[in-house]
Amino acid sequence: MSGRKKTVADLTEAEIRGRRVLVRVDYNVPLDDDGRITDDTRITTTLPTLDALLQQGARVILLAHFGRPKGKPVPEMSLKPVADRLRELLEGRRVEFVDDTVGHAARHAVGTMYDGDVLLLENTRFLPGEEKNDSALAEEMAALGDVFVNDAFGAAHRAHSSTAGVATIMRGQGKPVVAGLLMDRELQYLGGALDEPRRPFVAILGGSKISGKIDVIRSLLPKVDRLLIGGAMANTFFKAMGLATGTSLVEDDRLDMARELQSTSGDKLVLPVDAIVAEKMEAGQPVQTVDREAIPADRMVLDVGPRTVEEYRRVLSDAGTVLWNGPMGVFEVPEFAAGTKGVAEAVAEATDRGATTIIGGGDSAAAVGELGLESRMSHVSTGGGASLEFLEGKELPGVAALQDAP
Ligand code: ADP
Ligand code: MG
């Protein structure tokens, strides 16, 4: 794992005051049908970085992507609503928005900023070069700033012009290229768990597919003391053990892999002992609790059962570090949410006892948020895909391009 990166806190006041500080943020927030922001976590979590820069007189220029416009302007994917929300959050600051990213209008808007002002540029993915990590585009972005700050952990696994590209170019120009405070927090928690976990180190993996998380399992197994499995991926392990799985979601092409993981992991890998089953993945179904040896032929496993929750709670009771990725069941449907809720509560209790608890993964973070348990976890990652790639042991291009800590 790479060492610590230089951060905003390492910059001198001379490097900040009156400087054009280009900050890459992840403002890919959820909108409702009327274009209103339904959850502004991705904006509020960048405020520590913005405040640190603005209080020292920076001119903050924000780069962000939104949705998947695929290289051309799509009006519904404009960042304008985000600028409006940011203006409310940064009360008293001048927060401008310009519907241009690197063109004449963007350059003009940058040129008319005062110290302590904020400017949000239009969606970087409106430009065809962005997702290709086009270097000419990265050069144009680099020309807008004297300093580059990457606070977009959620976009750090992509090598795009506004993440890795602009950082590499600005470093080559001798400009400071550092991590924001949110980025630093993500790297400290996730990196700390992998590199020097307090033991016992318990990982919990769930979600829909074993195939999407196989690299995470392989990377975590040597590091953890226990790996608790839930979600649909447990079914593939059940079938590999020779158990009946009814109509459950099973990845038949992963049975050999599941068998191999079970035989090489000793007693580290822990599987559910019971399950909640129903006919369909829908609300309003009659549900049944069964032992894993008794899954009916015409039913599917949609959650872990209460004995499993108790067993996992017991394993978590003396954990020093907990890392959780992927819900235990189809938590979106109330009938199949109890496993995820029970495990989330057990993780929150581990935090209360002094364990470091980390939630990674988009759906897991959403589940913890819905349960109102966010503040009882040590850290809830803002990056779904990025946190998975980090846990797989991959180097994130957006992080690799930043300067190392002094
Ligand atoms: P994360 O985003 O936290 O990494 P995933 O995307 O891997 O999690 O998985 C989340 C999805 O897995 C949820 O939509 C949930 O409904 C689904 N899921 C969990 N358990 C099951 C199951 N037993 N059968 C089918 N789908 C499941
Ligand atoms: Mg997901």
Structural summary, described in words:
35% of the residues lie in helices and 15% in strands. The protein is α/β, with parallel strands linked by helices. It has a 6-stranded parallel beta sheet with strand order 3-4-2-1-5-6, with helices on both faces. Strands 9-8-7-13-14-15 form a 6-stranded parallel beta sheet, sandwiched between helices. Strands 11-10-12 form a 3-stranded antiparallel beta sheet. β3, α5 and β4 form a beta-alpha-beta unit. The site of magnesium ion has 4 residues, from α14.
Mean pLDDT: 96
Q: What is the CA–CA distance across the termini?
A: 17 Å
Share in helix = 25-40%
- Strands, total number: 15
Radius of gyration: 23 Å
- Indicate the overall shape: elongated
Query: How many distinct helices?
Result: 16
* Secondary-structure class: alpha/beta
Numbering strands along the chain, what is their spatial order in the largest sheet?
A: 3-4-2-1-5-6
Unreliably modeled segments: none
The largest pleated sheet is described as:
6 strands, parallel
Strand content: 15-25%
The small-molecule ligands in this entry are: adenosine-5'-diphosphate, magnesium ion
